[in-house]
Amino acid sequence: MNKSHAVASRRNLSQKFPFNFVLLHFVLAAEFLLAVYSSSSYAVLSRHAVGELGQSPSHATWTSTIFFVGRALGMFLSPWLSQAWGRVRSLLSAVVVLIVCNFILAYTEDFYLFLGMRLPLGLAAGAVMMLCQYVLMDFYPVNKWPFVTTLFGFLLMTTFGLGPTVGGLMQELHWNWRDYFIANFALHGLCFMFLWVFLGKREEKISHVHFDGVGFLLITLCFFSFQTLASRGQDEDWYNSLFINVLFFLGVVSLIFFFIWELAEKDPFFNVRLFLIPNFLIANLIGPLSFGALYGAFSILIGALQQVGYSSFLSTLALPPMLLVLPFLYPLSVYLSNRSDPRPIASFCFGLLALFCYMTSTYDFFNRRSFFVQSVLLSQIFLGSMVGILPPLNRICIEGLSPRHQQMAINCGILLRTFSFTVGSGLLGTLLEHRSVFQLRRLVETRSMFDPQVVEFLQKLKDLGLDSLQALKVYAETVMQRSYILAVDDTFRFCAVLYLIITFWIWATKIKKLRKESS
């Protein structure tokens, strides 16, 4: 059966069985959300998982970042998979991989098996995220495809606001991390059964598409090396460690050989010549920088709220307010980016992100008060401006490219932005730790044991019935907590400066004026 007949037969589902057609939308959306939330929801439970598997809490970041390496590669490979294996077959195969990986992750007792399975889990999740969209597009004419991409764009953006909250809620209900993977195993299995019923017997045309295996292996080695370096560098004492030095060497060498190989490849895995185009280069520097910093800022904000006594669930409630702007800012950004100069909307969104980071750096985590509004982090609404960043960045990225290169440019941007999650949290975490040590030393130097305020504080503790050693222990814990929060403030000020620079940097790109259509 040729491709046009296969597509036509699938469209018959919408005409003969409208209820099944609507249900298929829900199943594909549910499978998409399961794949998307498998990173953000797990992040809240990651410390419990690695602790039970006998590792230090610092290994939790490693289990998250290796997942993002897989997701980045899976999303990038999905166009090739859809042609070489067929969209439906590739989607069903990816869901099977998710089912198997979640089952192993739920029952394994070995940390390194757990860590290793996070990579194929990410690969399959990334593929599912793209293939769900490709499959649904078959049921619509080309002029309706923007509806499909906008629908899944909405769903994707919810992961930043609701994903961590889902994980926190599970913990609040006393579900452990193994229950989380068992639930995913069951839900993916349910979605697979529905997808098999709707799509399993439909034939697709398979194309023999060239696959640049060498380029894929080189970029995978590069990503894995730098991801592990960023995640483990602080614990391994950076370049005083042979392990870190070997990773750095492998990462640099594989990156160099990757560029050389791709320049000589007729049908490259990643068209590195696109970096010679200024708009593409700037968009794909700004995108990874901004999203990597944003993911790291999420982790640090949740950690800061937990540090001052909030539960995992309550600490994640700082993120959902960002979704208040999603229903109107995202479609507005899509509309303006496609019909006018995308730089103003991009600059506006980055400016709001800078404001969010600055306001967070001034928030009093101890008295729960902000200069903007008391007792409520209303600044979190400004965080919602992140939902308006992707459409203008994509438009800038493809500016001036031929239609043949536009999809490749978009896929390259997705690859780099997703990979930035793997290094963003690690590097910002390192900055946080260094600033925490600096602030602790400064507090110790400026608040000695003979300081009148310190003496008064210790005396109040003794009046409450504590002996001298207990009072000193409480004081030391208070100083540690205060130094951590001051370091959080410093880190968010750094992010505020970064986003402020990007607000103006975006204007270095060049956008041609759109021609007005004649009436």
TrEMBL record:
Spell out the protein name for this chain: MFS transporter
Major facilitator superfamily (MFS) profile domain segment(s): 24-514
List keywords of the entry alphabetically: Membrane, Transmembrane, Transmembrane helix
Topological category with respect to the lipid bilayer: Multi-pass membrane protein
User: Is Aminoacyl-tRNA synthetase one of the keywords UniProt gives this record?
Assistant: no
Q: Which Pfam families match?
A: MFS_1
Signal sequence interval, chain numbering: none
Tell me the organism. Candidatus Methylacidiphilum infernorum
Q: Which residues cross the membrane?
A: 21-40, 88-107, 113-136, 148-169, 181-199, 211-230, 242-264, 276-302, 308-333, 345-366, 372-393, 414-432, 491-508
